[in-house]
Design goal:
The longest helix is centred in the C-terminal third of the chain and has 29 residues. This protein has one domain. Helix 2 crosses helix 4, helix 3 runs antiparallel to helix 4 and helix 6 crosses helix 9. With 228 residues, it is an all-alpha fold. It contains nine helices and no strands.
Length: 228
């Protein structure tokens, strides 16, 4: 089963992401050094989000990741913005519902409506379109979801372009992705509300999820290697 992979010329993308992260951290450091109230800025941003309401926020979370908007940004801000108003169990449920809707939306676009356009787009970014037999569908979804560096929307579109059985795609995607987004929502809320114990527990959960994902990914990667 050929798996999606970026050619050598495209493997500079992680460096771009690293440069963006370092740039954001540098800007934050400069603002703090100059005495700017960074927390106040964040609180005003949260107030602006709250003013638009949870319906607008979670609708945007359900749709915008399909065009490349980082889903992590929604996950980290959902708790601080609406945790007190709705309660964290409700916020986490809405986060998972929005992510699941995005699974469905992007799969449908890749499978039907925008297939020719998305095929060209994926190839432009250096991703090989996988050709999947029925017995390999599980392996492909697991590797797509657990391989670092593949953007969320690319994972969804590649699964749709590979024409994986929808029920299997949706079930595996939820099982593999939900825990990370739930822990991320709790982590974001705990950090901004100063709940150190909850933040540590959520961070430990994210680390555990990452470790399990690494082991599962290695297992499925070994299955793809031809026997000597």
């Amino acid at each position: 089963m050929p798996l999606p992979a970026a050619p050598a010329s495209k493997k500079k993308i992680p460096w771009v992401k690293l440069a963006i992260v370092l740039g954001v951290l540098a800007i934050g450091g400069i603002l703090v050094a100059r005495g700017v109230d960074v927390r106040g800025l964040f609180n005003r941003a949260m107030d602006a989000i709250r003013a638009r309401g949870p319906v607008a926020f979670f609708t945007a979370m359900a749709v915008l990741p399909g065009v490349g908007f980082p889903v992590l940004a929604f996950g980290l801000t959902a708790g601080p913005a609406f945790g007190e108003e709705l309660g964290m169990p409700t916020v986490v449920g809405l986060v998972l519902l929005a992510v699941t809707f995005n699974f469905i939306l992007t799969y449908a676009l890749a499978r039907r409506a925008l297939r020719p356009v998305l095929e060209k787009l994926m190839r432009h970014f250096g991703y090989d379109l996988p050709q999947v037999e029925a017995g390999d569908a599980t392996d492909l979804v697991v590797i797509l979801r657990l391989t670092p560096g593949i953007p969320f929307f690319v994972q969804n579109y590649l699964a749709g372009l590979a024409e994986i059985d929808f029920r299997k795609y949706l079930l595996l995607s939820c099982l593999l992705v939900w825990p990370t987004h739930a822990a991320t929502a709790f982590f974001g809320a705990a950090i901004m509300q100063g709940k150190g114990r909850v933040a540590v527990m959520a961070a430990m959960g994210l680390v555990a999820i990452g470790a399990i994902a690494h082991l599962v990914r290695k297992h499925y990667a070994r299955k793809q290697k031809p026997p000597a």
